[in-house]
Amino acid sequence: MTTIEILQKAKRAAPSLAMLDTDTKNKALLAMADSITEEKESILEANRLDVESAQKKMNDVMIDRLCLTEQRIMAMSEGIKQVAALPDPVFEIMESHARPNGLIINKVRVPMGVVAIIYESRPNVTSDAAALSLKSGNVCVLRGGKEAYRSSRAIVDAMKRGLEKNGLNPDFVNMVDDTTRQSANQLMTAVGYVDLLIPRGGAGLIRTCVENAKVPCIQTGTGICHLYVDGEADQDMALNILENGKTSRPSVCNALEVCLVSRSIAKDLLPKIKKRLVDDRIALGKTPVELRLDSEALTITEGISASDEDFDTEFLNYILAIKLVDDVVEAVEHISHHSTHHSEAIVTSNKKTAEYFTMAVDSAAVYVNASTRFTDGGEFGHGCEIGISTQKLHARGPMALREMTTYKYIIEGNGQVR
Questions:
Q1: Which of 59, 186, 325, 343 is within CB 3.0–4.6 Å of 375 for a Cys-Cys bond?
Q2: How far apart are CA 179 and CA 364, in angstroms?
C-alpha cells in the first residue's frame, strides 16, 4: 500500500476514533498489550533478522537501541497498560465561564486527528506512539527506520489484531512500508492529511523535518545534556549522578554528553571522575568512558584533548566532554551557547546557586541533584511519551497524552445574537 493510500485510510478513520469513549479505548489498549505478549516469538524473530542485518553497519550502542528481548517486549506491553490506566484527556473541560449575556464559554480538549511519527532504530517507540495516539483519540501513521522495519511491522501487526479482536478499526494504527526518503517527504508535506508531525531521532532527522515540513511539526530533542558540578557539591553524589547520566544507557537523548566542573574542586574531582568512569569500569569488564578534556582539565587528569566540536556533539556513546568553569554563571553561559534545550543538571548544596541555575537555564527539564536520565514520560508519571519536545510552543518536555491534544471552544447559549 502506498503512503498516500495509508494517509487516506487514516484520515477516514480519524472521526470515529475521536468519538470513542474512554472505556472502549482502554479495552482496545489492553487487547493491544496482550496481543504483543502473545506474539512475542514472532516479534523476536523479526527483530533477530533486523539485528543480523545491522551488525556490520552499526556500533554496539546503536545495536542495543535496536535489539529487543523478551523483557523489553514485556515492558512494551506493560507501557501500553499504563497508558490505559491514565486519565483520558479527551473532552476534558479546561476552562468554563459565563458571559454577562448568558453565553457559557467552554474550552475543551480534543484530539489532533491524524498524527504522523517519523522515528529511527528503536522499535519500542512503535508501541509507545500507538498507545498514546489511541488513548488521546488520534489515528497514528508510523514511519520507522529501515534498520527496524521488520520489528516495527511485527509489533504493528500484533496491535492491529488486538484492535480487531475488540471489533475496532485496525486503521486506527498504521505503518508506512516505504522506508525511503520519499515516504518521509510525503508525510512532511501531507497537507490535509497529517494534523501533527513528530520526528523522533537524531539531529539530522529533526532538522530535515523542521526545515521541510509543510504540516505542523514538533521539534523533539537531540540531547546535548549538561551536568554542572558546583564548588559546593557533594562529590560522591556528583559521581553517582554523572555515572548514571553517562553510562546507564548512553544511546538515548537524556544521557549526559558534557560535564562542567568548578575550578575550585577540579584537582580533587577530576581524578575521581577518571577512576569511576574509566579505571573502575575497565576493572569490572565494562566499556570505559572516553574522556575528552579541555586544555586545563587535561593538565589534571588523563584523557583526550577536546575539540570545539566535542561541546556541540550528541555522542550517543561512551564519550564525555569535560570543561572547567569558574562558577555557576560561567556554567550557565556555556550551556546557553551549546545546549539543545533538552535536559541540564546541577549538583550543589547551595540553594541560591541552585535557584540561579534553574531560573537561568533555558531547557525543557532542569534538575537539581538528580540525573538527567529521568527526562522520560514514564519517570514523570505520564505513562510513556512520544518524544521530548525542546521547543516552547504547544508542548515542552516529555510529550504524553495532554500534549497529544488540542482544544476547541464549545459555546452554549439560549438564543443570543450579537
A1: 343
A2: 31
355 Cβ neighbours under 8 A, 6+ residues apart: none
Q: Are 22 and 88 spatial neighbours (Cβ–Cβ below 8 Å)? A: yes
DSSP letter string over 56-70? Answer: TTS-HHHHHHH---H
Residues 242, 250 contacting (CB under 8 angstroms): no
Instruction: Enter the C-alpha cell of residue 216.
Output: 505542523
* Set of cell numbers at residue 403: 500534549
Nearest-angstrom CA–CA distance, 168 and 21: 13
| Residue found by looking up cell 553517582 in the block | 240
The amino acid that residue 197 corresponds to is L
Q: Report CA-CA distances (Å) from 413 to 93, 97, 338.
A: 17, 12, 53
pTM for the complete prediction?
A: 0.80
CA geometry: angle 373, 253, 391, nearest 5 deg = 105
Could you tell me whether strands 397-398 and 388-389 are parallel, antiparallel, or unpaired per DSSP bridges? Answer: antiparallel
Under 8 Å between Cβ of 152 and 142: yes
pLDDT at residue number 62: 82
Distance separating alpha carbons of residues 101 and 58, to the nearest angstrom? 65
Q: Residue 178, Cβ neighbours under 10 Å: how many?
A: 16
Q: How confident is the model at residue 221 (pLDDT cuts 50, 70, 90)?
A: low
Among 147-151, 201-205, 334-338, 398-402, where is mean pLDDT lowest?
201-205
Nearest Cα to Cα of residue 291 among 237, 251, 367, 275: 275
